[in-house]
User: What shape does this take?
Amino acid sequence: MALCTECEAEIVLDASTEIGEIIQCPDCGLDLEVLSVQPPELAPAPEEEEDWGE
Ligand SMILES: [Zn+2]
Assistant: This one.
């Protein structure tokens, strides 16, 4: 089980979840990238339309 980085909702990772997969928080709808499966670790997925140039 992992926690949403935005709203801290508990998210259960499916057994078939793989690192790099994007899952959506059922609570706030935020896209989360799976950084690690064991232990579960999530990070906000980068928005593809966003330009990283800063
Ligand atoms: Zn959330």
User: Anything to note?
Assistant: Residues 2-44 form a domain with the Rubrerythrin, domain 2 fold (CATH 2.20.28.160). The radius of gyration is 11 Å.
